[in-house]
Specification:
It contains four helices and four strands; from the N terminus they run ααββββαα. It has a four-stranded antiparallel beta sheet, with no helix packed on it. The radius of gyration is 31 Å and the shape is elongated. Among the domains are: 31 residues; 60 residues, no CATH class. β1 and β2 form a beta hairpin. With 131 residues, it is α+β, with helices and mostly antiparallel strands.
Length: 131
């Protein structure tokens, strides 16, 4: 009698097909995607809103910079009452120009719109000029 129950239980479990656990796999996949999205967004936010590096004593300050190639940049650096225009490339920094600090240009930059508003205005002006 006991063997019959055991045999019937084994035959029932052997007949039922294994149900794939796709819901668990999908849940794990979406959790992984969520974590990756959070990491990417955190890295983007850190890059976007990174605090400029300050040298102790505040003697050197980067005013502006522009990329002129894939790895080359032109950087405007303030040291005391002097502005230096530097060419920066991998393994090399070259002084391109030296000039006295300009207070008026710095004040205009602070008053000017920044970020998205300026970019949008420039794009719209270019678009209107083409028409």
């Amino acid at each position: 009698m006991r063997n019959d129950r055991l045999m019937s239980a084994l035959s029932v479990s052997a007949v039922q097909p294994a149900i794939p656990q796709t819901s668990g796999m999908l849940q794990m996949f979406f959790a992984l995607l969520f974590v990756l999205a959070m990491l990417i967004s955190a890295a983007w936010l850190l890059k976007r809103y990174a605090v400029q590096q300050k040298i102790p004593g505040g003697a050197i300050r980067v005013i502006a910079g522009a990329a002129v190639g894939q790895r080359e940049r032109v950087v405007l650096v303030e040291i005391g009452d002097t502005w230096l225009v530097l060419g920066v490339a991998p393994g090399q920094v070259s002084a391109l120009h030296t000039m006295p600090k300009m207070e008026a240009a710095e004040d205009e930059d602070r008053k000017a719109d920044s970020g998205f508003q300026t970019w949008l205005r420039q794009i719209l002006e270019k678009r209107n000029d083409r028409s």
